[in-house]
Predict the structure.
Amino acid sequence: MKLNKTVIVTGAASGIGYACAKLLSQRGSKVVGLDVQRK
């Protein structure tokens, strides 16, 4: 399924946020990842 959306994911450096950002990116979304950690 192609999503063609732009999404903002908070907590994207690790854990569930990272997994969501990766999955959404693989499905065609443009992802803006935010977190207090740099990674």
Notes: The chain is about 30% helix and 25% strand. The mean pLDDT is 91. Strands lie at 6-10, 30-34.
